[in-house]
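FORM 12-B: Structure-to-Sequence Request
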């Protein structure tokens, strides 16, 4: 299928031709050039196309190119060149496969940076713009942990959790992409412009909005569907019940993606969106990066193999620790049952289990329940 970037820009400049109609037109005519020469009747036969818009498209390109659309397309291409950016169309091989599979993928994206198949093994980390120290710590810890095993991270380059996640990935030497609600040459917030430049070296900045577009409030819900659509799963770190991250979470569920949430402290004046997602059974309770890796391991193989992970050092255990360690497994066991199986008093077993926890051999869950790490 022959799809030209300039044709898509021309068509997008005609009032009434949104993402869905543009996508359907290209598919219907098996390319972009044929759309420009079609009659109103032929255009109206396209799924989702009304007669008024079909007539507008036919009228705009009858006998040549619409001047206003041509000026828009040329200006966009000029801006792309100046920003060292490019257009990525739905029909390009390097368009993200996860995004291609959603209900309403953007027919084209603007990209500053680089992109490859690794983005299809990414995890999105999202949350509030007004994070607490706890939220910042968890966002950074999860993002750094993902990056350290080769998993790319996607977020929205906004203040707060997004910035903490992107920054942590770069610190760990990983790859991260930011999906923004403005033109890729109009990064918002302005204090993140230097961060965006660093991201473009090993990842990039993506947007479906035209070059020069301002960060209007109405852009962000559309931006959020791209964030969740690109990733295998989305992690919600600290958000209010009505926060933007909750929109992203809802979109992730609609797109049949995995959803994770980091539990927050109870605050009656500001109910936690993350806690709500966990309580409702929509999101997996996430205390660390291993919770994410356990759920997505079978999908992350391409990037996990691409990054060498050092083998863990052999455990040096005492006789009593070894007895308890043998009883621990993937299924959580209460301290009372562990002590009984190991043949030792509960108090003594607890001391040795805590030692095992310090050695990274076991993990303690709530209610004095233990599992192998």
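FORM 12-B RESPONSE
SEQUENCE OUT:
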């Amino acid at each position: 299928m022959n799809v030209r970037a300039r044709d898509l820009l021309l068509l997008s400049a005609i009032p009434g031709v949104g993402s869905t109609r543009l996508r359907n037109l290209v598919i219907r005519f098996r390319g972009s050039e044929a759309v420009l020469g079609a009659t109103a009747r032929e255009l109206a036969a396209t799924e989702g196309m009304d007669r008024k818009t079909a007539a507008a498209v036919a009228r705009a390109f009858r006998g040549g190119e619409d001047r206003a659309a041509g000026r828009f397309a040329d200006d966009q291409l000029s801006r792309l060149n100046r920003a060292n950016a490019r257009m990525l169309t739905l029909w390009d091989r390097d368009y993200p496969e996860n995004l291609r599979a959603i209900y309403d993928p953007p027919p084209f994206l603007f990209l500053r940076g680089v992109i490859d198949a690794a983005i299809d093994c990414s995890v999105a980390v999202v949350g509030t713009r007004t994070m607490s120290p706890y939220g910042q710590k968890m966002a950074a810890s999860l993002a750094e942990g993902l990056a350290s095993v080769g998993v790319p991270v996607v977020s929205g380059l906004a203040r707060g959790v997004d910035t903490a996640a992107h920054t942590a990935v770069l610190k760990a030497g990983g790859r991260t992409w930011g999906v923004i609600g403005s033109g890729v040459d109009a990064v918002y917030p302005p204090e993140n412009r230097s961060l965006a430049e660093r991201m473009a070296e090993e990842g990039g900045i993506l947007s479906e909005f035209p070059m020069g577009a301002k960060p209007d409030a109405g852009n962000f819900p559309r931006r959020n569907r791209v964030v969740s659509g690109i990733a295998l799963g989305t992690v919600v770190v600290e958000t209010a019940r009505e926060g933007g991250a909750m929109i992203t979470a809802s979109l992730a569920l609609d797109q049949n993606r995995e959803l994770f949430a980091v539990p927050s402290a109870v605050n009656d004046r500001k109910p936690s969106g993350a806690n709500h997602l966990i309580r409702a059974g929509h999101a997996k309770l996430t205390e660390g990066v291993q919770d994410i890796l356990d759920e997505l391991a079978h999908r992350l193989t391409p990037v996990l193999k691409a990054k060498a992970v050092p083998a863990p050092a052999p455990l040096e255990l005492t006789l009593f620790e070894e007895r308890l360690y043998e009883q621990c497994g993937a299924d959580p066991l209460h301290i009372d049952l562990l002590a009984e199986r190991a043949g030792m008093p509960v108090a003594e077993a607890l001391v040795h289990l805590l030692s095992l926890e310090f050695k990274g051999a076991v993990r303690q869950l709530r209610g004095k329940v233990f599992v192998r790490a």
